[in-house]
Structure formats: C-alpha cells, structure tokens
Fold these 4 entries.
Entry 1:
Amino acid sequence: MQKAFQIQVFGKVQGVYYRQSTRDKALELGLKGTVQNLTDGSVIIHAEGNEEKLNELISWCYKGPIKAKVNEVKVTEAEIKNFSSFEIIR
C-alpha cells in the first residue's frame, strides 16, 4: 500500500550531506519525494512509497549520514503527491 510521510529532522543536519544521503537512501529504497533544508536549521523530507520502505527511511533518519547529529525526528502522515523521482530542493 502506498503512503506518504512528512519527516522533519532536527539537530546538526545541515552542512553534513544530510540531503544528499537522504536522496541516496530513498532511491535505494525505491521511494519518491523531496528533501530540503529549512531556515530554522532542520531538514524536511516528503517521502512516498511502500509503507515498509518508508519505515526503513524513517529509522535511517534518526542516524543520518556519519557527520550528522540528530536530536529529534517528527513524522506526520502526508498527502500523496505522486512524485516521479526523489529530488533535493535547494
């Protein structure tokens, strides 16, 4: 079953390749969506796809790339927007 989640990640998550690493992980899992930095220093992810794969991405978000220091992850269900790929929004 297809689902969509908005995942907001707080901590030291900008300037540590969090967006690129998220995109790589999402593509590896076959997910679609977007990832971008927010002005408050957090990263926001919209991810769509198989619920099991989404849960894998959410679990990964708690760690992120090696230089990241994640303090908090907020997950909310989102509307499916039928993205065709997974993109970094700059």
Entry 2:
Amino acid sequence: MSSDIYGVLLAPHISEKATRLAEKHRQFVFRVRRDATKATVKVAVEKFFKVEVADVRMAVLKGKTKGGKRPGRRSDVKKAYVALKPGFDIQFGTGQ
C-alpha cells in the first residue's frame, strides 16, 4: 500500500442503511481500496475530516456474476464502517 493515506478512501457510500447508521449511531460508510486496513482507514478519516474515530469495521462484498449474451463479473467492493467518538460528526453534501 502506498504512503498516501488520502488514496485509501475512494468514496462515501450513500444509501438508506448508511443514512440510518449515521443518524442513530454516528457510523459512516466508505468505499475503500481492496488493500486498505483498519488502521489506515482510521488515520485517513481522522486526517481528512478532522474527527476522532472510535471503531472501524470492514466488509468485502463479492462481485456479482452476470450471464446472458455477454457473461462477466462485477468487481468486488470493500467497505469500511467508521464509528466516531461522541461530539464528532461528518456532513456530506452540505457544501461547507
């Protein structure tokens, strides 16, 4: 993995479940690189958003196999569930 910690986070994962987690538990979901670790995700989120991270959980979603005229496979996706310490928050899409 490169020393560039800002390359670890690919994008925030915005969905109904992710929004519910953010509202109730201050837990945010990010798509991350496949070789990312909990420690690198924690450092990247803390430096990029200037917050304190309490916990990081990782999940790998296996890509879907497609059939038909053009069979293929979608890429695997790795997600990080990041819980923040009390008093910290991340706002997506506020323009600030």
Entry 3:
Amino acid sequence: MLTLQFIPSHELSSLGEEEKIKKLLACVKSNNIVVLDARLKAEEEASLIKYTMGMINNKFKGIEIATINPSDKTLQGFDKFRVNLASMILGREQGLTVIGPATIIKEIKKDPNKIQLFTKRRK
C-alpha cells in the first residue's frame, strides 16, 4: 500500500534544522511519501540530502525530493507584493515539497506548476 503523509509547515516551524530532518527521514524510512505545504530552505534541503547519504545501506536506498514554487513571473503588482508579504509574515517559503523513499519512487517530473510522481510496482 502506498501512503502519502501530509505534514503542515507549522508542525515543523518550531523544530531546529536537525530535528526537522530527523522527523522527515523517519517518515520516509517508514515508506511514506511526505508532502509539505512549503519549501524547505536551501540549507535544510542540502542538509537533508547530506544526512540521507550517510544513512544509505542495503535496506535504505535514499530519497527522491522535488519542490515546486509559485511562479512569481506570472504575478503582477499588488498580487506579487501580497505573496511576498505573506511569506515574510508567516516565516515560511511558498511552494510544495514532496519527499519519498528511492525504493518506491521511480521518477519525479516537475514543471513550475505541477509534480508528477511515478512509483515502482511492489513485488
């Protein structure tokens, strides 16, 4: 069975970077595909990948990660100001992040507006 686990950004906002990464990896190592309602910061994403590389073994093959951002190019004037202001006030990055185990995810295709996630068949 394939499980998607939604984690709202407010659940991670009070955690430090290392705690956040451990929480995300615990979910992924349980063979869940994690969906976050925000982007990880660049440093957090780099740390997640670095931490994951040290955990790879015969049982855990790593992660696949994809992020989409709202297209700032399509926003004009007040709408662009409103989105930027909301990001500053909420203290989170706009977007969506999907993280899953490499043993389940075959491929992730993304463009600015959508993510297509292809999974492997289980034997």
Entry 4:
Amino acid sequence: MLTKRQKFWMVFTLLLGSFTTAFSETLLNNGLPTIMREVGVSEMIVQWLSTGYMLIAGMTMPLAAYLLNSFKLKHLFTATMSIFLLGTMIAACAPNFPILLLGRLIEGIAVGVNMPLIPSVLSLIFPANQRGTVMGLSGIIINIGPAIGPTISGIVVDHYSWRMLFIILIPVSLVIIIATQFAVKNVVRAKTDQLDWVSVFTATGGLGLLLYSLGRIGQTGRFSWQIGLMQVAGLIIVALFVRRQFKLDKPLLEMRVYQAPSFRLGALLALLNTSSLMATELMLPLFNQNILKVTPTVSGLMLIPSAVVMAIVSPIAGRLYDEIGIKKIAVIGMGLGLVATAPMIWYSAQTSAGTVTIMYALRCGALNLAYAPLTVYALNSLPKKYVVFGSTLIVNMNQIADAFANAMAATMQSLGKKSGLARGLSSLAANSLGYHWSFAAICVLNLLGFILVFWLHNKSRVEIAK
C-alpha cells in the first residue's frame, strides 16, 4: 500500500510526464504556417506533423496494456520518456521536413504508451467511488496540455525559430526522467506474457492504410480506385484484428469490455467528444492566421480563455458525476458544445477575433464538462480485472479517432478550397469555403454525440460477470 505522500508524488510525476507529451501533441499547431513557408510544403502535407503524431500514438497504444502488465512501471515510464526525448532532439535538429516528421513520429511512439498509463494507474490505486473526482483533477493536467500548446507555439514562433518549440521540451523531459527514479512505484505486478505479433501487425497495418488513404483524398482532391482499394483493405485488416482478439486467451486489446452496453456507449461518446475537440485545435489556428490574418501570437492568445475554462470545468465535472450521475451533465455539456460549434460553419474574414475566442472557450468548456464523466461512466461498468484494459482501450480509440478526425478536417478543408477555386472564387474566398467544409464535418461529430447522450443511464454498474 502506498502512503498518501507516495501517492501524491507518484501521481504528480506521471501527470507531469503526461502533460508534457500531451502538450507536444498540439504544440506545433500555431507554428504550422511558419513551418510550411520555411520547408516549402503544402497545408495538407504539413498537417501530418500533427496527424502522423496522433496516428503513431494510436498505433502504439494497443501495446500499452501488454507493456504495463509485463514491465515494472518505473522502467516503462523511464523508457517512454527517453524515447520522447530522443524524438524531440531529432526534431529540434531536423535539416528538412522528412527528418522533422521522423522526430514527431518517434515522439508519438512514447505518447502512445504514456497516455493510457495515467488513467490505468489512477484506476488501480483509487477506489471506484473516488474515480470521478480523481479523473476530473487529472483532466486538468492532461487536457490543458493540448489546450495551451497552440498558445505557446504562437508566441514562440513569432519571436524565435520553430525549433525552439522542441528545444524547450528537452530540459523538462530530463527532469521527468530523473524524478521517475525516485517517485514512481511499481503498483502493477509485472508478469511475462507472450506478445501476439499478428495482432500488432494487423492493428498497425489496417489503421495505417485507412488514415493514409484518407490523407490521399485531401492531397489529390478526388477519390480513385487505388484509394478505395486501400480503404477496403484497411477495413478488412482491422476486422481480422478484432476477430482475432476474441479468440486469444490474452489478447492485445481486450475487446470483451465491449460486451458491457454502458462501456460501449460511454466510450463512443468520449471518442466523439475528444476527436471533435482535437480536430478544431488543429484547424482553428490555421483559420485564424490564413483567414483572419492575425499573427501566431494573437492566434495563440485567442486560445488562452479555452484553456482556463477547461482547467476550471474538469474537477467540477468529476465531482458532479460522483454526486449526481451523468445524465444532466452529458446533455448540458454536449448540447452547449453543439450550439457553440454550429456558428463556426459561417466564420469568415469579417468574423471578429473576439467572437472566435468566446465561442471557442464556451465550446471547450462544454465538451470538457462531459468528457471525464463519460470515461468514468464507461469504466464503472467493468469489473476490476477489466478496468486497465477498458481504460487503455478508451484512450487508444480516442487517439486513433483524433488522428482520423484531424485527417478528415484537413481533407475537407482541402476539398472545399479546391471546389471554391473550380467555381472561380478568389483564393481567400476559396480558402474560407474550405474551412466552412471542415467545420461542418466537425459539427456533424458534435451532433451525433448530442443525439446519443439520451441513451445514457444516470449511473453505470458492473455489466460483465466478475
């Protein structure tokens, strides 16, 4: 048993590592236009610094539960932060775009293992009746990272080289690695399991084909038979992966958690929630700079209120779930999120920066109100032996959905812009139309989430035999 002091320092160190890696997820968003100009790539290509990062993280996440159960937590966390440090150093020194992308992909490997560790460890060291509050508090750290990433990047690229975005992460990563040696305890009993490599290859191969084919649509502006073939192959490979998991005694991802109806619904709603948030965090800074014509610093400052609101809402949301359940919280959160998303479809060069700032802060606060309770609602429908698998699967599916949502949003922007140019619109008007298409696609995610919340029960209970 850990003492309160040991618990505090362990959770603090793990959350600091999670914050750093989550912070890096959106750190480049406001710097993408600058990187585009310096390395000479298109908007559709440069967004792979964000989408590729998320995809690699999502492809790595299926290994998280295996690694957590097979290695001591201290050693695992040290290794992942060291990999993150390596990727950061490569990106900081990158002479061209391919090397920069390589550094980002290496960072993504570490994030793919790190992100599921936090909810899994918290679920193990805190009882079920405290999980809502604890997850809410951890949400401040984990969610505020992506929220303030674009703000910091905007300020940095206005005054320094974009390389500074990576350089500032190097000493922080070193401090976390050192702190891990003293603060992190091995709360999971390590046992050696056989890794099913067929599952690893089918998961990564199927997801990789699906996302790459989606990106190709945005680059080419059309749907070809080759793209269709890649998508069909990707879906078949993913289906084979899922089928195999049910046949294995020790699957890479424990798909049996989906036998719990409340887990299925809660996990799906959390997925829709976070993917719509992350897609907007990618596209809004680009809209601010390319359509509103504000500087990276101003674009970053426009996102600060959203980070503040999310920091305030996260602990309140977790505590409210513990006290009153999820029904009202989810309806209000997803409903307000939809109301704040819809106007984005009509944003233009005449839209004021103040309007964008206020509506985005309202949207982030509303969706964040629902996110942590939805996660806890899903996990509380599982017996304790499945909680780690359920937590890992939620984070895994969310990360993959984030990557797909980013690619979808960028693809819709590219298609909308090409459609506008084909109709004879000016470059600015066509670009603006592209963002309308992108924001409309994001709005559909929010609408679907709002419809589904009415199927929630107020509290979940264990729905799988112990």
